[in-house]
Amino acid sequence: MNFKSWAPLGAVALAIASMTSAHAADKSVAVTAIVEHPALDAVRDGVQAALKAEGFESGKNLKWQYQSAQGNTGTAAQIARKFVGDKPDAIVAIATPSAQAVVASTKTVPVVFSAVTDPVAAKLVASWEPSKTNVTGVSDLLALDKQMDLVKQVVPGAKRVGMVYNPGEANSVVVVKELQKLLPTLGMTLVEAAAPRSVDVGSAARSLIGKVDVIYTSTDNNVVSAYEALVKVGQDAKIPLVASDTDSVKRGAVAAYGINYRDLGEQTGRMVARILKGEAPGTIKPEVSTKMELFVNPGAAEKQGIKLSEALVKSAAEVVK
C-alpha cells in the first residue's frame, strides 16, 4: 500500500484527535480568591468537588484554573482582567474584593461570587432577586443577633465587644455598621480597631487591650489570614476570641457559630454547573448558605482566661481538642 492510500486514514486520525482534544476542554471555569486561608480554600475545593459531581471534571471535560491575589486588590484586578480575556464559560470569584474586581471587568462573562457577605452593599448585584446581568452567586451572610448570643454564652458579662477589621473591605464595613446598631439594643458597645493590611492585625488587636471584654471576628479576609496574631493577643491579654468562621476555632478562637465553607463551595459549584448546562446567570437568584455549625475550643478558652459551660460544649457540632 502506498503513502497516498494512508493519507485519508491519517486525516481521520487527526480529526478524531482534534475532536478528543476539544472535548477534553469543552467547558472552562476560572477561579480566583482574594487570599488563601482555610475558609476560602474550602470554598474553592467545594466548587471543584460539586462540579465533578455534576459531570464536569478537571482534565477530562473541564479546563480549571485558579489564582489567588495574595491579599492584594491590585493583583485581584490584574487576575480579573486576565481571566476575562481568557473568555471562560464562568468565573468564580471568592470573597468580596475579588468579586468586585471581576464584576468591574466584564459585563458578558458569567460571574458567580462566593463567600461574599452582602453582595448588594458590595454593588455586585442590585438586589437579592435575579440580577438580569451576568452576575449571581452565594453569600455567607450571618445573622448577627445569633452571633452576639454566642458572645453572651462565651462571656456572659461582656459589655464591650472589640472588632478588628479592614475598613477597605465592603463586607467588613457592613458588619461594623450592623453591630453599631445592634449592640446598644443588647446593652453592649462596639470598639473598633482598623487593620488595612494583614500585617496590621496584631497591632490593631493590641490596641484593644484594656478596652474590651471580648473580641469578635467576622469573615474579614485580612483578619482571618493573620489569625494567629490575634490569638497571641487574646492569650497574652486574656481576651476571649469569638469568631464567625469555624476554621478559626481550629486556629485558636474560643468558639464560632458559622457557615461550613466547604458546603458553601459545593452550593456555589452547583450554581456554576447550572450555568455550564445553559442557564443564564441573570436568571438565577443569589443564594445564602443556611447550614450553620457551632465549633468550640475549650483549650483555647482556658488560655484566654475563661471556661466554656458544659451545655455549650455539648451542643457543639465539633469540639476542637
TrEMBL record:
Keywords: Signal. Pfam families: ABC_sub_bind. SUPFAM superfamilies: Periplasmic binding protein-like I. InterPro entries: ABC_transpt-TYRBP-like (IPR007487), Peripla_BP_I (IPR028082). Residues 1-24 form the signal peptide. PANTHER family: ABC TRANSPORTER, SUBSTRATE-BINDING LIPOPROTEIN (PTHR35271:SF1), ABC TRANSPORTER, SUBSTRATE-BINDING LIPOPROTEIN-RELATED (PTHR35271). This is ABC transporter substrate-binding protein.
